[in-house]
Design goal:
Layout (H helix, E strand, L loop, with lengths): L5 E4 L4 E3 L3 E3 L5 E7 L6 E8 L7 E4 L5 E3 L9 E3 L8 E2 L5 E4 L6 H7 L3 H9 L1 E2 L6 E2 L1 H6 L1 E4 L2 H51 L2 E2 L4 E6 L14 E4 L15 E3 L3 H7 L6 E4 L1 E2 L8 E3 L8 E2 L3 E6 L6 H13 L7 E4 L2 E4 L1 H5 L2 E2 L4 H43 L5
Parallel strand pairs: 16-21
Antiparallel strand pairs: 1-13, 2-10, 3-6, 4-5, 6-9, 7-8, 7-10, 11-12, 14-25, 15-22, 16-17, 18-20, 18-22, 19-24, 23-24
Helix pairs in contact: 4-8
């Protein structure tokens, strides 16, 4: 602790707010929640009074300090933003007014994001494993070191300067990652344009020898003697087959002939609530036993004398990332869908197999370089994530 800092109990800095209002059934109210690990105070919902299970609620005001009794020990605390001034909170979220003659709101806002402050909340939380709650009297009795208001403002200014630099570095990292994706997509688009000029295009339907939807049987994590593994969206979402978190189902023999997979099949996500997942596909490989696929997927078996499965996957990825596949998408009850019939109509260039292999090799080199760049950016991101906590730790030790 820096010289000149005094140690004060939180009770001298925070006063419990008791501004209660009667809840009117037809009135609308903003409700507040607090995200974990210093992620801030946000709006939970706007609700009519008839939806609120109480006749009275406490009111939160801008720049008041609020925390979750249950999750304060997990960093669920912070200042109420201006946008939530007048919002209502349940008794699970006590609200405190600051003694601004001794502590500036922004100083507390940054301080509350430190591990040392979370440790204070943890020490003030008591109860059994499932009923641990922050006790206000213990919390307000906890002491913390506090500099003068002038020093608090200097620390705030310095933290905000460094936080802005970290945010800018993070923005540049994200921009570089997006540029890497853009480079890959532009190169693939350029290659496909050249292939189309030279070889024309064919409908996907002309290249398919078998296609269909998967099984709707109920699947579980527990495997019985008669059950088969059933690949689902999570098993293809990364555009390669993975066998983690498998589910199993007892597929009737008559249906098994229709939904059993073969090496080289393509599985395509056909329906999901996320448009980002629609059209993602993976080439089936690494099968060690009879394996089926779920109804949210489409299986395509292509004529491998004309087109390689890996080349076809690359073409479908291009259609999806360029937005062309979304011409095939429809929404019903919040779900995005790609029909097999419309998928058959998609068109792509089909050069000789030898040229398909050269195209794959070229694009894989590009992807490899871009993946290395993104991996480097990911490592930088982890370093950036560690910087702000380090800055705050130094700041509230009087070392900044």
């Amino acid at each position: 602790m820096s010289n000149g800092w005094t140690t004060l109990p939180l009770g001298e800095l925070l006063r419990k707010s008791e501004e209660w209002i009667a809840i009117e059934p037809k009135a609308k109210y903003k409700e507040v929640t607090v995200r974990l690990w210093g992620k801030g105070v946000v709006q939970r919902r706007v609700a009519e009074g008839s939806e609120i299970a109480a006749s009275w609620r406490n009111v939160a005001r801008a720049n008041q300090f609020i925390l979750s009794r249950i999750d304060a020990r997990h960093g669920a605390l912070g200042l109420v933003p201006d946008s939530l001034d007048g919002a209502v909170v349940s008794t699970d979220f006590p609200v405190f007014s600051l003694n601004e003659a001794k502590m500036l709101p922004k100083f507390l806002n940054w301080l509350s994001k430190t591990q040392s402050f979370i440790d204070i909340c943890n020490a003030a939380s008591v109860g059994t494993t499932n009923r641990i709650r922050l006790k206000e009297e213990k919390f307000l009795a906890m002491k913390l070191p506090l500099p003068s208001l002038i020093e608090q403002q200097r620390i705030i200014t310095r933290i905000e300067e460094l936080a802005a630099k970290i945010a800018e570095a993070r923005r540049l990292r994200q921009e570089a990652t997006l540029q890497a994706d853009t480079i890959s997509q532009r190169e693939l688009a350029s290659v496909i344009s050249a292939l189309t000029k030279e070889h024309g295009s064919q409908s996907l339907g002309d290249l398919i020898v078998n296609a269909g939807y998967g099984t709707s049987i109920k699947c579980t994590s527990t495997r019985t003697d008669e059950a088969l593994p059933v690949l689902r969206i999570p098993n293809v979402a990364l555009e390669r087959i993975n066998f983690t978190n498998l589910k199993y189902g007892e597929v009737p023999e008559a249906e098994a002939r229709r939904v059993l997979l073969s090496e080289g099949d393509l599985l395509i996500v056909r329906t999901n609530g996320s448009a980002e997942l629609i059209g993602r596909c993976a080439v089936v490989s690494g099968l060690h036993e009879p394996t089926a696929f779920a109804s949210y997927l489409i299986r395509i078996a292509c004529n491998q004398s004309l087109v390689s499965p890996d080349y076809l996957q690359l073409m479908l990825k291009h259609l999806r990332t360029e937005g062309q596949l979304f011409d095939l998408a429809r929404t019903t009850a919040g779900q995005y869908n790609v029909s097999l019939g419309r998928l058959r109509a998609a068109r792509l260039p089909v050069p000789p197999l030898s040229k398909q292999e050269r195209v794959l090799a070229h694009i894989n080199v590009i992807h490899s370089k871009m993946d290395s760049l993104k991996q480097l950016q990911s490592q930088t991101s982890a370093e950036l994530d560690a910087m702000l906590p380090a800055v705050l730790d130094k700041a509230f030790k009087g070392e900044l």
